[in-house]
Write a structure and sequence with these properties.
126 residues, transmembrane helix, transmembrane, DUF1772 domain-containing protein, Anthrone_oxy
Amino acid sequence: MRLRSAAEHNRSRSKPAFHAQWQPSYKRALPLQSGIGIVPGLAGLVACYVSWDWRWLAGGVVMLANWPLTLLAIALVNKYLMAMQECEAGAESRVMLIQWGRLHNVRSALRAASTVLFLWGFAATS
């Protein structure tokens, strides 16, 4: 059984359609993805400052860890895929989209871990 990406793509499409679907989806998701990493991360740091509870700090740091991952690894794949024309899509773009999905899974795991830490911190203060 293969682990699927949290951002799974439709496998029934041809490679050019597969790639053509990714590009507009990425453009729409970019502003939302940016806020998802920064706002909760900074909120966790503020909550740590107010409560002096390490769980809020850990959750904020884990959430903010999405940024270096995105800038150092995912951005390279994004640039490659965004520069590619639909007619150039093929086996190489398919491999890059699979790599992008795996990297996105890491981001999803970081967000999940951060959420658990935030919930733990919230439970401790209640």
